[in-house]
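== Sequence and structure of one protein ==
=== Format: two labelled lines per protein ===
==== Data for this protein ====
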Amino acid sequence: MKKTIGLLITLWLVAAVLPLTSQAAPLLKLSWRAEYCDNDSLSGAPRLSIYEAVLSHDWGYGSPAVEIPPDNFSARYTITRHFEKGTYLFLITADDGARVWLDGTLILDAWDFGYKHRKAKVYIDTTGDHELQVAYFEKTGKAKINFEWIQLGGEDDIVGAWTGQYFNNRDLAGDPVVERQDGAINFDWNSGSPAPKITRDNFSVRWTRSIYLSKDAVYKFRIQHDDGMRLYVDGKIFYDSWYDQSVTYQTREVPLKGGYRTFVVEYYDHVGNAVAQLSFDGDPDGYEDIEPDPGGAAIVVDDKSPRFRWGGPAGNRYIGPGGYGASSWTYNTTHDPVNFGKWTPPITIAGNYEVFAFIPGSNATTGAARYQIYHFGQWEERTLNQSRYSNEWVSLGTYYFEGKQEECVFLYDSTGEAANSTRIAFDALKFVKR
């Protein structure tokens, strides 16, 4: 009898413990495995191995634990997390040094003495689980490390673009009739409309964008609009001019904290001209000043660059407003090309590069711009409907370039459309190492 009672008690205790174990396991998978060494070179077996929910520590002049000295220690942090395909911004703050690897590839290198803050923009091309590993060392003085990441855009998103919702009323009411990505709020529709589905008058727009600001500062905004416009940052209104008016130029200085901020711009047009323009100092735009990895950066070849060549009569090349600085354009032919543009990027490191074309907000009305990419001894063609885009970068795909001088991109004026019925824009191309 005693044995039976003892067995029942044992089974009850096991049943009570099992649910706790099964609940704890998923939590550990979402945590960092932290290994601390009592030296600054990650040498030997770690003195302390624990799990941590977030990788954010400010020890001051102290240390992670009594087993670890306040100076000359190091750590290794490892985690596996699910990432959707898209573009991410990875940020690390360290005192003293740190390195970050994604699936074994070094994406951030700050392995030197002293306080620093580094960023890397990385495109993840596979949805699924990915391993992150961070190495850290502390020499003397204060000890600190903080690591985080932000998704800048999904698979088909344009990094740095505004999400625009367009309504066929002045009150942003109901469902939008058009939703699209706008590379910038820089529009002068005159007496026209933003898109075929939108009325020429009595329409409104809401643009939304999340922006990483690098520091606490007073940011200067430049604003023009006809008719009304409002600006919100993190839900707080900073500019309100919601009434009928002629186009006016305004500036506003707004104190904002660094970090990830959400901007909302609302606009409406009543009758007559329609103008909506907004920009501010310190806007990271497409985050092009951030290295995509320690070994490469975006390469931009503009139509004003010596690496761009115009083919065809010089009189057929027109210079239009807007675009990446300014933009070249010409009228289309139907079948036989007369004019072309050629971009030759200064690529010196072989690898996969994603090619982007900047499509300006004017003089880009063709539905069939023919880009031909010559890379690694072969030709690829991409046909792009330029009329769908406005002041934004558009991907032409990813290709392997071996770094030879003859590798280039052509754009021809033959589109298959009725001759002289559309305009083709020849603006900047961007090559981003993947």
Residues 1-30 form one domain. The helical segments are 2-29. The chain has a mean pLDDT of 86. The two ends are 71 Å apart (CA to CA).
